[in-house]
Amino acid sequence: MWIKICGIRDPDTACMVADLGATALGLNFYERSPRSIDLAAARQIQTAIGSREVTLVGLFVNHSLADVITTCHELSLNMIQLHGEETPEFLAELVQQIPELVIIKAIRTSEPDLAFLKSYLETCDQVGKRPDHILLDAYSPIAYGGTGHLAPWKMIREEYQYLDWPSLILAGGLTPENVAEAISNVQPFGVDTASGVEDQPGVKNPSRVKAFIKQAKSEENPSLNPL
């Protein structure tokens, strides 16, 4: 099971989360988020984790193409998460500049089905670039993720085209108390949390991080390969 803990803000937390077994650490560059960091803080985190086998994922929300490319080059990022209204054309332009870049596209869903995602992926096919992974999050009119709101598990399980669409990462209100149930219900490729393991925005609770990772791994599907 691919497990990302998002909103890492300092080196000590990064090392703690990595040592507890997370697959990936989310670095949030969205300035309006309480979990946001700048390039200097990201470099400190990168230095601190050293040779630990954990992936740094840069999170962007409606940033310019130039900003995303610059940050990726500055930090040698090979995986990013686009959590805003980035178009399929934006994805295509991005991989023209950084061909090896792995892209997670977040979709915040409140609809009764996944018609928007289906249409989005059809446009991606037309412009020649699909995201490598889809992250489904709960919709909020006031925030781009990290709200603690639950994603609609039942609808996702019924509507997601697992064989034809990019691999699914589930987010939205996941906690140590519900992540095993979420995985059992939705059968995602991976899971992602921020607020679900925090004492307050941006402050991770080691006990909750440990419990989240343990519970997520308890429902791991052995047929799924890691990213």
Verbal overview:
With 227 residues, this protein is an alpha/beta fold. It has one domain: TIM Barrel (Alpha-Beta Barrel), CATH 3.20.20.70. The protein is 36% helix and 21% strand. It is built from 8 helices and 10 strands. The strands form 2 sheets. Strands 1-2-3-4-5-6-7-8 form an 8-stranded parallel β-barrel, surrounded by 4 helices. Strands 9-10 form a two-stranded antiparallel ribbon. Helix 4 links the parallel strand 4 and strand 5.
SSE layout:
Layout: E1 2-6, H1 11-19, E2 24-28, H2 39-49, E3 55-60, H3 65-75, E4 79-82, H4 88-97, E5 102-109, H5 115-127, E6 133-138, H6 153-159, E7 167-170, H7 179-186, E8 190-193, E9 198-200, E10 203-204, H8 206-218
Parallel strand pairs: 1-2, 1-8, 2-3, 3-4, 4-5, 5-6, 6-7, 7-8
Antiparallel strand pairs: 9-10
Question: Would you kindly provide a brief summary of this structure?
Answer:
It comes from Gimesia maris. The chain has 227 residues and is α/β, with parallel strands linked by helices.
Core attributes:
Aldolase_TIM; alpha/beta; EC 5.3.1.24; 8-stranded parallel β-barrel; globular; 227 residues; TIM Barrel; 8 helices
